[in-house]
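re: ur question from earlier - yeah i can do the single chain one, its not a big deal. heres the input i used so u can compare w yours
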Amino acid sequence: MKISHQTVASFHYTLRNSSGEDLETSRDGEATAYLHGANNIIPALETALEGLETGAHTEITLAPEQAYGERREDRVQKVPVKHLVYRGTLKPGMTVQLNTAEGRHPVTVTKVGRHSAEVDTNHPLAGQTLVFDIDIVDVRAATPEEVAHGHAHGAGGHHH
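and the output i got, formated as tokens:
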């Protein structure tokens, strides 16, 4: 079966930056599963995976505008510390969660004050060319429940 609309694809990946530095990998654990066509992964990555089958290996390079966008300096802002979710002592360089009206979003702390912090709301990988080294582990038809929910269930997917 090929990856296509309303299939669930499971894959292992290693993500690298353009310098070849490993940023993250799934190879130490469960494969990542997603519902193809439901916008569960980066759109350009989803397009590149279309048509692949179990056992396929591919390397996909995405420019910043295809991945998490260019870094924008206007996305650095000062917020009250009470709106941040973190453990331990708040320090510059930490990635924490910012509570917003639309839910929690990861931000990077750039400066810490007594009652407020300066945070960078750009995605941590914004501005970077990303290289995905991918091995397709499984492709199967999505269940009606997965289609209705808009995501894969089970190992590597969403758990209810």
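Residues 43-49 form the longest helix (7 residues). not sure if urs matches, ping me
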